[in-house]
């Protein structure tokens, strides 16, 4: 079974990250996000490609993507996770 174009691009972007070619990887993940703005993995890899190392940098990146894709829920969800410091945890089910 042939690889989809999207999967091939994702794998290529990951290889570029591993080789330290961050600018090229950033371009690949930017295009993947444009094609599918709901894929969390693309955003996580974009964090690495753009060297977003702290919460402020990540929040700024996600704010930019929220403006570019106002109907997409992924950048909003990921930004909320970072802002709350609960990466990967849904606060609506938090009983504390």
Annotation keywords:
single chain; 96 residues; mainly alpha; Serine Threonine Protein Phosphatase 5, Tetratricopeptide repeat
Please characterize this protein's 3D structure:
There is one protein chain. The protein has 96 residues and is mainly alpha-helical. It has a single domain, classed as Tetratricopeptide repeat domain (Serine Threonine Protein Phosphatase 5, Tetratricopeptide repeat, Alpha Horseshoe). It is 66% helix and 0% strand. The chain is built from five helices and no strands. It is globular and about 35 Å long.
What order do the helices and strands follow? HHHHH
Number of strands: 0
Can you say what the CATH homologous superfamily is? Tetratricopeptide repeat domain
| Percentage of β-strand residues | under 5%
Q: Tally the structural domains.
A: 1
- End-to-end Cα distance, whole Å, is 47 Å
Helix content: 55-70%
Number of helices: 5
Give the C-alpha Rg: 14 Å
Please write out the topology.
Layout: H1 5-18, H2 22-35, H3 40-49, H4 55-68, H5 74-84
In short:
The protein has 96 residues and is mostly helical. 66% of the residues lie in helices and 0% in strands.
């Amino acid at each position: 079974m042939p690889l989809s174009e999207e999967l091939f691009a994702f794998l290529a972007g990951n290889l570029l990250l591993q080789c330290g070619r961050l600018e090229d990887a950033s371009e690949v993940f930017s295009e993947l996000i444009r094609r599918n703005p709901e894929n969390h993995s693309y955003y996580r890899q974009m964090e690495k490609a753009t060297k977003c190392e702290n919460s402020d940098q990540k929040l700024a990146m996600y704010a930019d993507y929220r403006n570019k894709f106002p109907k997409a829920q992924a950048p909003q969800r990921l930004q909320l996770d970072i802002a709350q410091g609960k990466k990967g945890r849904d606060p609506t089910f938090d009983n504390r």
